[in-house]
Amino acid sequence: MKALLSGASSGIGKDMAKYLNSLGYELILVARSEDKLKELCDSLDNSKYLVYDLSKEENCYKLYEEVKNEDIDLVINNAGFGLFGYFDETDLNRELEMIDLNIKSVHILTKLFLKDMIKKDRGRILTTASSAGFFAGPYLNTYYATKNYVLKLMLGIYEELRVRKSNVHVSVLCPGPVETNFNNVAGGEFASKGLDSEYVAKYAIDKTLKNKLIIVPGTMMKLGVFFSRFLPYKAQLKMVYKIQQNKVK
């Protein structure tokens, strides 16, 4: 069994790598930080790393070309980041970089690897989205929008595979707050304690291997996503804004 994992150098991705390793997977780990990747690989069996900045479109194609003959069973799109602030005040270049990483890299890699998996009629793709994918996100606008894209993309692909009775499966991870470096990068902090990253990683992998489509760790977040569908849009916006505003440093 072989897995390709992006965003592997820290947080959920790092914990996914450790758990997959314990399950016997051979790993190809991808991130921008060579030092962190090397340190992680040194602690794992049957793993190697590739240094790519996937916010650069050409690197997505280069990565695919480098590993396309590896007979990968599981692809995990996990790289991504957020940015707090009013939409008119946040840095445009940073937002465009976020769109390139959170959306474009996921779109390119999913399409390229999915086509190969469909030909073989086997394989799995897990993409890390967020509970943000179910909402609009004032004060974290662009991040929420990117996760909406990713979530809906995977849902559409799922149905296309289902109607064709394909043995290829897609899953999408939609956690709420998780204790990672996300908030330090985005410029905020959780108002309450997030879920443990190791727990989320294990939960996501276990559910993916059972072909679960939408993976929402944590009882409170499951309830939040469920009951939110009964709220009017304007009430959802007020709720999300209050949550995000409480995170600002």
Structure in words:
The structure is a single chain. This protein is an alpha/beta fold. It has one domain (2-245): NAD(P)-binding Rossmann-like Domain (Rossmann fold), CATH 3.40.50.720. Helix content is 50%, strand content 14%. It has helices spanning 11-22, 34-42, 57-67, 92-120, 141-163, 182-186, 197-209, 219-228, 233-245; strands at residues 2-6, 26-31, 47-51, 74-77, 123-128, 168-173, 214-215. Strands 3-2-1-4-5-6-7 form a seven-stranded parallel beta sheet, sandwiched between helices. Helix 4 links the parallel strand 4 and strand 5. Helix 3 runs parallel beside helix 4 and helix 4 (92-120) runs parallel beside helix 5. The protein is globular, with a radius of gyration of 17 Å. The model has no long low-confidence stretch (mean pLDDT 91).
Topology (elements, then pairings):
Blueprint: E1 2-6, H1 11-22, E2 26-31, H2 34-42, E3 47-51, H3 57-67, E4 74-77, H4 92-120, E5 123-128, H5 141-163, E6 168-173, H6 182-186, H7 197-209, E7 214-215, H8 219-228, H9 233-245
Parallel strand pairs: 1-2, 1-4, 2-3, 4-5, 5-6, 6-7
Helix pairs in contact: 1-7, 3-4, 4-5
Summarize the structure.
The chain is of the alpha/beta class.
Q: What is the 3D shape? A: globular
Tally of discrete structural domains: 1
CATH architecture: 3-Layer(aba) Sandwich
Binned, the helix content reads: 40-55%
Describe the biggest sheet? 7 strands, parallel
Query: What is the element string, with H for helices and E for strands?
Result: EHEHEHEHEHEHHEHH
First and last CA, distance = 43 Å
Cα-atom Rg, whole angstroms? 17 Å
> What does the average pLDDT come to?
91
Output the CATH homologous superfamily: NAD(P)-binding Rossmann-like Domain
